[in-house]
Write a structure and sequence with these properties.
Layout lengths: L24 H26 L5 H18 L5 H37 L21 H21 L1
Helix pairs in contact: 1-2, 1-3, 2-3, 2-4, 3-4
Length: 158
């Protein structure tokens, strides 16, 4: 038993054969758009069914878009990729706010139509998209932008 040859294995991954070329800009744009839409829909559904808007989801959308852009850029992140992440983070945040507004407005209109004749003459509810914003929303939107800008660059440095 002492004369048997010793077998050694190298279990480290071979990184020389992995494709490290970044995805095309079209794929990165598409990935950022999908992340923004998914984030917007999740935010709107949580806000609508939970009857409370969690502004921290704005920074989560920024982080999600940033991670997707960084992943698709395969650590070859440029300023253009960061700009893509910021733009689509804003699209996701504003889209989530608008979807929430749409769902709430639709509910208000349905409730008013059910009341119909019971409403006083000239009764109207003045509810607009701008009413969905409060001052501290600026903070959460800024955090979403910061997350979308910094995450791809940090990911590329690791």
């Amino acid at each position: 038993m002492e004369n048997q040859p010793r077998i050694e294995y190298d279990i480290t991954p071979d990184t020389t054969q992995q494709n490290t070329a970044p995805a095309s800009n079209v794929l990165i744009l598409g990935g950022a758009l999908v992340a923004a839409v998914v984030g917007a829909v999740v935010w709107a559904l949580i806000a609508y069914y939970g009857e409370y808007e969690l502004q921290i989801l704005a920074s989560a959308i920024g982080a999600l878009v940033g991670f997707i852009v960084a992943f698709l850029a395969k650590k070859n992140v440029t300023a253009a990729h960061q700009i893509i992440a910021v733009v689509f983070a804003l699209v996701g945040v504003l889209g989530g706010k608008y979807l929430t507004y749409y769902l709430v407005k639709k509910d208000i209109d349905e409730q008013l139509s059910l009341l119909g004749a019971d409403l006083p003459a000239g009764f109207e509810i003045d509810f607009h998209f701008k009413d969905m914003f409060q001052l501290y929303d600026v903070l959460w939107i800024a955090l979403a932008v910061i997350a979308a800008w910094t995450i791809p660059k940090r990911y590329s440095q690791s």
